Write the structure tokens for this entry.
Amino acid sequence: MGEFGAVSVVSGHIRGLTNTMPLHVEILYNEYDFVGAFAVAALLCFLAIVTLALKTLLEMVQPQSRPARH
């Protein structure tokens, strides 16, 4: 997962060597494999939702720390 522009610049976007899911979506889309691009994009969305759900669950389980009063 990641932001597309920064990933493209930092990874160098060397085809077949440096590949991330957002870059893979672009490759599939540019090759007119719209079903494949949509499938990978849907997987990215699913991973984002799972990550947010786990974060929310962990925040609910852990006790909140409160700052000391003077």
In short: The chain is about 65% helix and 0% strand. Helices lie at 4-11, 21-30, 34-61. The CA atoms of residues 7 and 20 lie 8 Å apart.
